[in-house]
Design a protein that fits this description.
The protein is α/β, with parallel strands linked by helices. Helices cover 36% and strands 22% of the residues. The mean pLDDT is 97. Pfam families: DJ-1_PfpI (PF01965).
Length: 190
């Protein structure tokens, strides 16, 4: 069974977080939601006020192997993720091992670009500030709702979160499983 880490913080985007975790669990993936908040605080107040309780603090995830790490966006949630040293260590190890790394909305620009973890092409929430951060990192921004380049999967925002999660299922489990879940959720494959 694939294992996926979904890090969260105060002000992470709740639709992106819940879409990714829900779709992955439907696919039979073991999902661990980890809080990056100080002192091991597990409860996070998301971008629109929803309170989410993580499974573990991020410190419990260091030194473990993950088949994928999927980062939600939201601001300043993505900034909190980017500033978390243990998470950045995990992200760098993920890329070095050529394992799947996913980021949606603000996360490609705020987390991945800040730490030199972007591939040659990616997408993010379509605002000039994020497009500029990708360009500064040497990455070409594209309009596609979901972009896969090397082992990195990026997506644009809350409205593309289902397709983003389905692409992760396709990579981690199978195209058939992703199609089955898409049909059950009344949506389309990316």
């Amino acid at each position: 069974m694939p294992r996926v880490l979904v890090p969260i913080a105060d002000d992470s985007e709740e639709i992106e977080t819940s879409c990714v975790t829900d779709v992955l669990v439907r696919a039979g993936v073991e999902v661990t939601v980890a809080s990056v908040m100080p002192e091991g605080r597990l409860q996070c107040k998301m971008a629109r006020g929803l309170k989410v309780v993580a499974d573990v603090p991020i410190a419990d995830c260091v030194g473990k192997e993950w088949d994928a790490i999927a980062l939600p966006g939201g601001m300043p949630g993505a900034k909190h993720l980017s500033e978390c040293a243990p998470l950045v260590e995990l992200l760098k190890a993920q890329v070095a091992a050529n394992k799947t790394l996913g980021a949606v909305c603000a996360a490609p620009a705020i987390v991945l670009a800040a730490h030199g973890l972007l591939p040659p092409t990616a997408t993010s929430f379509p605002v000039d500030a994020f497009k500029s951060k990708l360009a500064e990192a040497g990455t070409a921004w594209t309009e596609a709702r979901v972009v896969v380049d090397r082992s990195v999967v990026t997506s644009q925002g809350p409205g593309t979160s289902l397709q983003f999660a389905l692409k992760l299922v396709e990579r981690l489990v199978s195209r058939e499983k992703a199609e089955e879940i898409a049909k059950a959720l009344l949506t389309q494959m990316p």
